[in-house]
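Tokens as discussed.
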């Protein structure tokens, strides 16, 4: 008879096989769904997105071939543009994880946002989830990558190809791998409802985000 450790290993193996099977089926049907929706015009696709997402604001444009893993964890504000082939990854095990995008946000092509990753200290690579928050009036350049737990402050500009591993303060320009703040973002007068004046008058920059701030808008 197998001893207790071997029994536990067998149970773990069976549980893993079951989990992989269920995940594989989910991925299969999800892939079929996104293939179908990519063939539909924008007004029809946006109706599906309203059903899928936790929140979807007004005047949102989502280009074709974007991918959303666990869309019920995604909150999107008003006047948001998401360009072609962007990818958003939530967390399977941490259902409270969120990807929160504020108002007036522009996301370039092939941007990747991860709200989940794996603990590298363990050989089994257990998953963990940390919410990602993107403030109002943020612009993210094409090919940028946003990692779990990052908060991008209001009005920040993320350069193309940047890998954002830590919080970015409001009204700043960040670029590189890992992304670093390289300048202040000074908006021309009259182009953003007085945002430039707000930047000049702010003696301190603080980053404040809460789920309710965006979800209840």
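Sequence:
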């Amino acid at each position: 008879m197998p001893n207790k450790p071997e029994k536990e290993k067998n149970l773990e193996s069976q549980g893993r096989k079951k989990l992989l099977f269920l995940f594989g089926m989910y991925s299969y049907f999800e892939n079929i769904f996104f293939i179908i929706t990519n063939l539909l015009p924008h007004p029809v696709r946006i109706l599906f997105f309203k059903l899928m997402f936790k929140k979807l604001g007004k005047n949102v444009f989502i280009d074709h071939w974007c991918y959303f893993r666990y869309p019920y964890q995604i909150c999107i504000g008003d006047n948001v543009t998401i360009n072609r082939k962007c990818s958003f990854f939530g967390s399977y095990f941490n259902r409270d994880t969120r990807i929160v995008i504020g108002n007036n946000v522009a996301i370039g092509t092939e941007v990747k946002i991860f709200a989940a990753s794996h603990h590298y200290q363990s050989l089994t690579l257990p998953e963990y989830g940390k919410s990602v928050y993107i403030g109002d009036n943020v612009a993210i350049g094409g090919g940028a990558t946003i990692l779990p737990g990052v908060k991008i402050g209001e009005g920040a500009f993320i350069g193309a190809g940047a890998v954002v591993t830590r919080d970015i303060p409001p009204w700043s320009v960040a670029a590189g791998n890992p992304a670093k703040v390289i300048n202040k973002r000074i908006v021309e007068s009259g182009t953003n409802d007085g945002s430039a004046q707000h930047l000049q008058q702010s003696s301190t920059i603080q980053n404040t985000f809460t789920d309710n701030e965006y979800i209840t808008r």
